[in-house]
UniProtKB/TrEMBL annotation:
Protein name: Putative ABC transport system permease protein
Transmembrane segments: 55-79, 91-114, 120-141, 191-212, 218-240
UniProt organism field: Micromonospora purpureochromogenes
Keyword terms of this UniProt record: Membrane, Transmembrane, Transmembrane helix
Protein family (similarity comment): Belongs to the UPF0014 family.
Cell location: Membrane
Any one Gene Ontology cellular component term annotated for this protein: plasma membrane
Lineage: Bacteria, Bacillati, Actinomycetota, Actinomycetes, Micromonosporales
Membrane topology label: Multi-pass membrane protein
The UniProt record lists the keyword Chaperone: no
Keyword Membrane (UniProt): yes
Superkingdom of origin organism: Bacteria
């Protein structure tokens, strides 16, 4: 057994390929519509992680390079959420909840001195928070727009009763969009009982004590809740104001 969770070698590569093929096959046979996307996502993840592994040492040595890398992460996250929500030109509005939700928390942690201004600390923290904001934005945006499409008659009825357009849209889509917080809530509620998340396990494997690992994981989970709550609220607001709309 190596010092990490997995033994790195040819068997691991074969296992990853088999798992990817199984996931894609199940999605295809089950007509979920994501078989090809699963395979593409797995290949992209392998290529991207390999590239980052080669570049990370140079990036973390410079604060400017770190800032540029964080900006790239935000741009990719916004592009991913924008395509998932609208698939059109208005998708760039997804930048607002992702950046506002994640980078405001990162900035607050820096100002409070809880995270040192070093690339080796900033990149993983920013990556976790940006990823959470991206997921929340995608889920909230899709749920809100789907709800509006299916219940547009209720929006028109609310308008007929004298509600402002923004208030009429919020009345319909806000409860559905709020469900985007459920994954983060469930993970936080069940941590240690159902799952042992990456930050906790990674610190234990790295030699940290259980208390330090637990505090770090708690920080990650609570930070994600704050980031995702901000992202969901801003996404719903953008939908209500007509900034995010489905592609005609």
């Amino acid at each position: 057994m190596s010092s990490t969770m997995l033994v790195v070698g040819p068997k691991l590569a074969v296992t990853l390929a088999v798992l990817t093929a199984v996931a894609a096959a199940v999605a295809t046979v089950g007509r979920l519509g994501h078989g090809r996307q699963i395979a593409v996502a797995a290949v992209r993840a392998a290529v991207q992680l390999a590239a980052v592994s080669l570049l990370i040492a140079a990036i973390v040595a410079s604060l400017w390079a770190t800032a540029a890398f964080v900006a790239v992460m935000c741009a990719v996250a916004a592009g991913t959420s924008g395509r998932r929500i609208t698939g059109g030109a208005r998708g760039w509005w997804a930048t607002v909840p992702i950046v506002a939700g994640s980078l405001s928390v990162v900035l607050g942690l820096l100002l409070a001195g809880l995270v040192p201004a070093r690339g080796i600390a900033l990149i993983p923290v920013a990556g976790i928070l940006i990823g959470g904001a991206m997921t929340a934005t995608s889920l909230a945006g899709r749920r809100a727009l789907d709800e509006l499409t299916g219940r547009w008659g209720e929006v028109e009825a609310a308008l007929a009763l004298g509600l402002l357009p923004r208030d009429a849209v919020l009345l319909v889509c806000r409860p559905a969009a709020g469900q985007a917080l459920i994954p983060a809530l469930d993970q936080t509620r069940t941590v240690g009982l159902v799952t042992l998340p990456g930050a906790f396990v990674g610190m234990l494997l790295g030699g940290a004590g259980p208390l330090a690992a637990g505090i770090t994981q708690l920080f990650v989970l609570v930070g994600l809740l704050a980031v995702e709550a901000v992202a969901v609220v801003l996404t719903v607001e953008l939908v209500a104001r007509g900034r995010l709309r489905p592609t005609p």
